Amino acid sequence: MTGRPLALVVEDAPDQAALLRRYLDREGFDVFVARDAESAIAEFPEIDPALAVLDLLLPGISGQECARAVRERFPECFLVISSVLDAADYPPADAVLPKPITGSDLHAIVERARR
């Protein structure tokens, strides 16, 4: 155990997942990446994320459904929605991270999550 908080990333695009992993690692998180909502939900018994970054356009279970599942299972988790969709279409979340993602945008969200 590293003592670092865990960030859950649900992102099906490998380049975006790698970018989020790198940014979140720099911000002091251990990162668990799932390529789809089903994989993320299957790990719920084993993880306890402090922060979750979810894409909305996922294969299988939608990002909206995944966001509801994360909120239900981990009510204290800081939920971030990241998508190319219009932010008006995002489900309720603690923060939004429109794509393309930048390190400075993610840093600002992490700072909010830490408060």
UniProtKB/TrEMBL annotation:
4-aspartylphosphate sites (modified residues): D55
Gene3D superfamilies with a match to the protein in the record: 3.40.50.2300
An example Gene Ontology biological process: phosphorelay signal transduction system
InterPro entries cross-referenced by the UniProt entry: Bact_response_regulator (IPR050595), CheY-like_superfamily (IPR011006), Sig_transdc_resp-reg_receiver (IPR001789)
Lineage top rank: taxon: Bacteria
Domain named Response regulatory: residues: 6-114
Keyword Phosphoprotein: yes
Keyword terms: Phosphoprotein
Pfam family membership, one: Response_reg
Classification via PANTHER family: RESPONSE REGULATORY DOMAIN-CONTAINING PROTEIN, STRESS RESPONSE REGULATOR PROTEIN 1
Name the UniProt record assigns to this protein: Response regulator
Annotated source species: Microbacterium maritypicum
